[in-house]
Amino acid sequence: MRTVLIDPPRLPLIAPSLLAADSANLERDARGLLDAGADVLHIDVMDGHFVPNINFGPAVVAALRRALPDACLDVHLMIEEPGRYLDAFLEAGSDLVSVHVEVCEGEGVARGLARRIRDAGAAAGLALNPGTPIEAILPDAEVFDMILLMGVQPGFGGQSIDPHTASRARTIRAAIGSGVRLEVDGGVTVQNATALTEAGIDVVVAGTAILGRPEGEWPGLIEAIRGDVVEGQCPDGL
To answer: Is the pTM of this model over 0.85?
Structure first.
C-alpha cells in the first residue's frame, strides 16, 4: 500500500474519479489532479453487465502505474465476476481494490476476495449500492480495509447524490468504528461534501465536480471539497 493510505497528512482524502477525465489525455489529467492536491486517483472499472457501461481495464491501470509510480491507485470493480479478473488488476499495480457486495453471494465469497487482495499487498474495499441494505456488508466488514458507499446507482458520472447517503454513512460509521476507511462515490459536490465528511466519510470520490471545471480551478475545488484540514487524524490500518 502507498504511504498516503497508511499515514495521510490530512483528512478527508480526496480521490478524483478518472471516469470524468479526458480519455485521450488520461495521464495528463491524472498528473494534473495530483499536482492540484488530490491524494488518491479513483479508477472505475465497468463491464457492461453489473453496470450498463464499459471502460477501463487492467492495461489502463498498468499504464497509470508506469507513468505515476508514486500515485495511490484506488480501483473500483463494478463488475459481475471480480474473482475472475482480480489478479490482473492486482498485477497491474492497484493499491486498493474494491468489490461489490451485490456480487459476493455465498458464504465466504467476500472474505475470500479480501484475502486475495491483501495477500497481494493491496488494501481491500467492499462496496454497496444505494438500494442495498447496510446489513449486507456488516458480516464481512471486519476483514476489509474500506467500505465504499455509493451515492448514486453506478455506471455513469454526473448524477445527483441519493438524499439518504449521509444518513447511511452515519449508520455505517457507527457500525464499523474508526479503524476502517469509509469512502463515498457518486454525486459529491462542493455543496454537499461537508455533510458527508461530518457523517463519517474520510475518502471522498469526486468526478465532474472537479474534472468538469477548468484545470486552473482544480486546486481550489479540491480544497473546498476537503473542507477543514485536521492534521494527524487517521483511522488505524490504512
So the answer is: yes
